[in-house]
Write a structure and sequence with these properties.
Blueprint (H helix, E strand, L loop, with lengths): L2 H71 L2 H11 L5 H17 L4 E8 L4 E6 L19 E6 L2 E11 L5 E9 L2 H7 L10 E5 L6 E4 L5 E4 L5 H9 L4 E5 L6 E7 L6 E7 H23 L3 H27 L9 H18 L2 E10 L1 H8 L1 H19 L4 E6 L2 E9 L2 H14 L4 E3 L2 E3 L2 E9 L6 H18 L4 E3 L3 H22 L2 E10 L5 E11 L5 E2 L1 H11 L2 H21 L5 E5 L2 H6 L2 H12 L6 E6 H6 L1 H13 L3 E7 L8 H4 L4 E4 L11 H17 L2 E4 L5 H10 L3 E2 L8 E2 H8 L13
Parallel strand pairs: 17-18, 20-22, 22-23, 23-24, 24-25, 25-26, 26-27
Antiparallel strand pairs: 1-2, 1-5, 3-4, 4-5, 6-7, 6-11, 7-8, 9-10, 10-11, 12-14, 12-17, 13-14, 15-16, 19-20, 19-27, 19-28, 20-21
Helix pairs in contact: 1-6, 1-7, 2-3, 3-13, 6-7, 9-10, 10-11, 13-14, 15-17
InterPro entries: Biofilm_reg_signaling, EAL_dom, EAL_sf, GGDEF_dom, Nucleotide_cyclase, Rev_trsase/Diguanyl_cyclase
Protein name: GGDEF-domain containing protein
Keywords: Membrane, Transmembrane, Transmembrane helix
C-alpha cells in the first residue's frame, strides 16, 4: 500500500474521529446545559426550603420569649397598683416594694430570663432586676411606646434578647412597660448547627433596628456584629420582605446569600455560603457525565444512553436527599416543623372545603430532660428515635406524626368523625409509651403529656391550632403528667391564675400568711374535748381566706409540700405545748402527706420539732390516709415504725375508702382509726352505711384500736354512733374549724370541757 493511500486513510480516520468527537461535544453540551439548570434549580429550591424551616424554628423561640413577657406584664394585681401609682394613690416605694419580690419569683420560674426593667407610663424605670444593659430607657420613643417588640442588646458585653411588653389598664390605656432580657443559648445552638448547610456555611439571625447579625461562636456563645458590605444590601432587602437566593462576587470570592424573613416582623434568617462549595455538588455530578458522554460517543449512541441512565439516577438521588433534609427531621426521620406546617395547611384547606373536623395533638415527653442530662445526649438521641418508632406504630396510619424539636412531637388527624376519636388516639399514644425503653443497657420509663385542639372549634389557622394544643399540653403536664387535656377557652386564663397562685404560695411561706385552724375532737359520752385536728389556711394580703383544697395539690406538684408540712407540724406542736403547760389534757392531730412519708425525712422533722417545742410525744397524733397506706405499705411501714418509736400516736385517716384488704392493719403500728365522713353522712337511715359502721367498730374493738367518727353534724347521728359503742367523734355538731385564739377561749380554760356546740 502506497504512502498516499496510508495518508488518505489516516486523514479519513482523523476526520471521522474529529466528527465523532465534535458530535460527542455537541451531544454532551446539549445534555449538560439543561441538566445543569435542573440540578442547580433543585439545589437552590431545597436549600431555600431548608432555610425557611430554620427561620420557622427561630421564630418559634422568639414567640416563646414574647409569650413569657406578656404573662409577666398581664398580672392583674400589679396592673391595678400601677394604675393607682399613675393616679397618685400609691407611692413609688410602695409599688416597688410590692412588685419586686413578685417579679423576682416569676423570673425564677424560667432559666431563660436574665433581667427585667419595669417602666412607668412616662418611661421612667421603676425597678431593675437581674442583668440588664445600661441606658435601657432609650429603647422607648418620646411618646413612651417601644420602638420594637424584640431586639438584640448587649448585656455584660454579650448579646441578649430584649423583649418589650406593654402593660395596659383595663381600658386599654398604657400604664407601663416591661423590658425583659433573655439568654440566647437556644437560638445560637440552632445557628451553630453545621449539619443542615455544611461546615462552610454561616448562619445569621438578622435583628431589626439596623440589621444586627447574630450567630454562634465556636464554643456556642452568642456573637453579634454589623453586616459587612456584601451582607448589607441583602439585610436591607430582608427588612423590606425579600426572600430568595442572591449570588455576589466573582471567581473564588463568589458567595451565595439566602434570606428568609420570619413571621415576627423585622427579623430574618440569612445563610452565607461560598459559591464554590455550594455548587460543587452540581459540577461534581455533571463532570463525570460529560467525560463519559464524550468517551461513549466513540462507541456509539447506545453505550452513551446506557451510561447516562445511572448517572441521572445519582443526580435524582442527590436532589432527593436535599429535599428530604428540608422536610424531615435528621434524627428521627419524621416530618419536621416545616413539613408538618405544610401538611397542616393542606389539611385545613381540605377540611374547610369538606366541612369536616381535624385534630392537632401536641405531645411533650415527661422527664426527658432528666434522662438526657443524666445519661448523656447520644443516648437521649437514641431514645428519641425509639420514641418516634413506637409512636408511629401506635398511630397505625391514622394521623401524620412529626417532630417539632427537642422532646416535642405533633400529630395531625384528618377526617375526624367525632371529637372523642382524638382523645382515644391520645390515650393510645400514652399507653404505647408506658412500656419501658431499653436503650444502651438502661431501662428507661417515660410518660407523655398531650394537648388536643380541634378544627374549627379551637382555631381556624395552623398557628392557632398548634398554639392552643401547646397550651392544653401544659395544662395536662400541670395536672399530673402522663395524661391528655382538651383545649378550652378558659385554659389560658386558668394557666395565668395557676402561675399567680404558685408564686403567691411561695411568698406566703416567707411572709407568714399561713394560719392554723383547729377542729376539736370529743368523747361521745359526756362531750369532753380530748384533742384537736390542725388544719391549714392561707390568708392572702388582700384578706381572702384560701382553703387547702386549692393550694395543697399545687404545693405537691411544685415541691412545696415538704416545707408546708414542716410548718404545720412546728406550729401545731408549739400550740399543743402551750396547752400542756396550762395543764390541759389535749392531743393535737397533724396530717402527713404521702410525699413526706416516702420522699422526705419526716422522722427527723418530728424528732426535731418535739425537741424544740418540748411537747410530750404522746400528745402528738400523726394521720396518714388509708389510700396512701394501701398503695405504699412496703415503702412506708419502716418510716411508721420509726415514728411510733418516738412515742407519737399514729392514726389511719379516711378509713373505709381504700377498697382493699384490711390485712395491712396487722402490719402497721397504728393506734387509731378515723372513719371517713361519707359513712356517717346518711345515718341513721342508710342500711349499707349502718352495717359498715357497725363492722368497723366491731373490728377495731377486736384489734384494740381506738375509733374517731368524722363529719358528725346532727344530734341523731351522734346518738346512733353512741348506740354502736363509738367513743369519739369530730364534726360540725361540735364545732367548725376555728382559729387558735378562738379554740383557746372556748376549750382552753382548763374546765372539764364541754357539751357540743351546734353548727351555724
Amino acid at each position: 500500500m502506497g504512502g498516499g493511500t496510508r495518508r488518505a486513510q489516516r486523514r479519513i480516520v482523523t476526520l471521522a474521529m474529529m466528527g465523532i468527537l465534535a458530535t460527542g461535544a455537541l451531544v454532551g453540551a446539549s445534555t449538560a446545559v439543561p441538566l445543569f439548570h435542573v440540578t442547580r434549580d433543585r439545589l437552590e429550591t431545597t436549600t431555600l426550603a431548608s432555610v425557611q424551616a430554620q427561620a420557622d424554628a427561630v421564630d418559634h423561640r422568639l414567640r416563646h420569649f414574647e409569650d413569657l413577657a406578656r404573662q409577666l406584664a398581664g398580672d392583674d394585681e400589679i396592673r391595678r397598683r400601677l394604675v393607682s401609682h399613675a393616679d397618685g394613690g400609691l407611692s413609688r416605694s410602695s409599688l416597688v416594694a410590692y412588685s419586686a419580690p413578685r417579679l423576682r419569683d416569676a423570673m425564677a420560674q424560667s432559666e431563660e430570663i436574665i433581667g427585667l426593667v419595669r417602666l412607668d407610663s412616662a418611661g421612667e424605670a421603676l425597678l431593675t432586676l437581674g442583668r440588664t444593659p445600661p441606658g435601657q430607657q432609650q429603647a422607648l420613643r418620646d411618646d413612651g411606646k417601644a420602638s420594637s417588640t424584640a431586639r438584640l442588646v448587649p448585656v455584660d458585653e454579650a448579646p441578649a434578647l430584649e423583649v418589650t411588653a406593654p402593660i395596659l389598664a383595663d381600658s386599654g390605656a398604657p400604664i407601663g412597660t416591661d423590658l425583659l432580657y433573655f439568654r440566647l443559648d437556644d437560638l445560637t445552638a440552632l445557628l451553630a448547627d453545621d449539619d443542615r448547610f455544611g461546615a462552610a456555611a454561616h448562619q445569621y439571625l438578622v435583628a431589626p433596628d439596623g440589621g444586627v447579625l447574630l450567630t454562634g461562636g465556636e464554643g456556642g456563645e452568642p456573637l453579634a456584629r454589623a453586616p459587612d458590605e456584601v451582607e448589607g444590601p441583602r439585610v436591607q432587602a430582608l427588612g423590606e420582605g425579600w426572600s430568595g437566593l442572591h449570588r455576589t462576587g466573582m471567581g473564588s470570592h463568589e458567595q451565595v446569600l439566602i434570606g428568609v424573613p420570619t413571621v415576627t416582623p423585622g427579623w430574618g434568617m440569612l445563610v452565607k455560603l461560598p459559591a464554590g462549595s455550594f455548587y460543587a455538588e452540581v459540577f461534581r455530578v455533571l463532570a463525570w457525565p460529560l467525560l463519559v458522554t464524550l468517551a461513549m460517543m466513540l462507541l456509539g449512541a447506545l453505550v452513551t444512553a446506557r451510561a447516562l441512565r445511572p448517572l441521572l439516577s445519582r443526580i435524582d438521588e442527590q436532589a432527593r436527599r436535599l429535599e428530604e433534609s428540608a422536610h424531615y427531621d435528621a434524627l428521627t426521620r419524621l416530618p419536621n416543623r416545616y413539613h408538618l406546617g405544610q401538611r397542616l395547611e393542606a389539611a385545613l384547606e381540605a377540611a374547610m372545603s369538606a366541612r369536616s373536623r381535624l385534630a392537632v395533638l401536641f405531645l411533650d415527653l415527661d422527664h426527658f430532660k432528666g434522662v438526657n442530662d443524666s445519661l448523656g445526649h447520644p443516648l437521649g438521641d437514641r431514645l428519641l428515635r425509639a420514641v418516634g418508632r413506637r409512636l408511629s406504630l401506635a398511630l397505625r396510619g391514622r394521623g401524620q406524626l412529626g417532630r417539632l424539636g427537642g422532646d416535642e412531637f405533633l400529630v395531625v388527624i384528618e377526617h375526624l368523625s367525632r371529637p372523642e376519636a382524638a382523645e382515644e388516639v391520645a390515650c393510645q399514644l400514652i399507653d404505647a409509651l408506658a412500656e419501658p425503653f431499653r436503650v444502651g443497657g438502661h431501662e428507661i420509663f417515660l410518660g407523655a403529656s398531650i394537648g388536643i385542639s380541634l378544627f374549627p372549634e379551637d382555631g381556624t389557622t395552623s398557628e392557632a391550632l398548634i398554639r392552643n394544643a401547646d397550651t392544653a399540653m401544659y395544662r395536662a403536664k400541670a395536672l399530673k403528667r402522663n395524661t391528655w387535656q382538651r383545649y378550652t377557652a378558659a385554659l389560658g386564663e386558668e394557666s395565668r391564675e395557676r402561675f399567680d397562685l404558685e408564686v403567691g404560695l411561695r411568698r406566703a411561706l416567707e411572709r407568714g400568711e399561713l394560719q392554723l385552724y383547729f377542729q376539736p375532737q370529743a368523747f361521745v359520752d359526756g362531750g369532753r374535748v380530748f384533742g384537736a385536728e390542725a388544719l391549714i389556711r392561707w390568708v392572702s394580703p388582700e384578706g381572702e381566706t384560701i382553703m387547702p383544697e386549692r393550694f395543697i395539690p399545687l404545693a405537691e406538684e411544685s415541691g412545696l409540700s415538704h416545707a408546708l408540712g414542716r410548718w404545720v407540724l412546728g406550729e401545731a406542736c408549739r400550740r399543743a405545748r402551750q396547752w400542756e403547760l396550762r395543764g390541759l389534757d389535749l392531743q393535737v392531730a397533724v396530717n402527713l402527706s404521702g410525699a413526706q412519708v416516702v420522699h422526705g425525712d419526716v422522722v427527723g422533722d418530728v424528732h426535731r420539732v418535739l425537741q424544740e417545742s418540748g411537747l410530750s410525744p404522746e400528745r402528738l397524733e400523726l394521720e396518714i390516709t388509708e389510700g396512701f397506706l394501701i398503695s405504699h405499705t412496703d415503702e412506708g411501714i419502716g418510716v411508721l415504725h420509726e415514728l411510733r418509736g418516738l412515742g407519737v400516736m399514729l392514726a389511719v385517716d379516711d378509713f373505709g375508702t381504700g377498697y382493699s384488704s384490711l390485712a395491712y392493719l396487722k402490719r402497721l403500728p397504728v393506734q387509731r382509726l378515723k372513719i371517713d365522713q361519707s359513712f356517717v353522712r346518711d345515718v341513721p337511715g342508710d342500711v349499707d352505711d349502718e352495717i359498715i359502721l357497725a363492722a368497723i367498730l366491731s373490728m377495731a374493738g377486736r384489734l384494740g384500736l381506738e375509733v374517731v367518727a368524722e363529719g358528725v353534724e346532727l344530734p341523731v347521728q351522734l346518738d346512733f354512733l353512741a348506740g354502736l359503742g363509738c367513743e369519739r367523734y369530730q364534726g360540725f355538731l361540735l364545732s367548725r374549724p376555728v382559729p387558735a385564739d378562738v379554740f383557746d377561749r372556748r376549750w382552753g380554760g382548763g374546765a372539764e370541757l364541754c357539751a357540743p356546740v351546734p353548727s351555724r
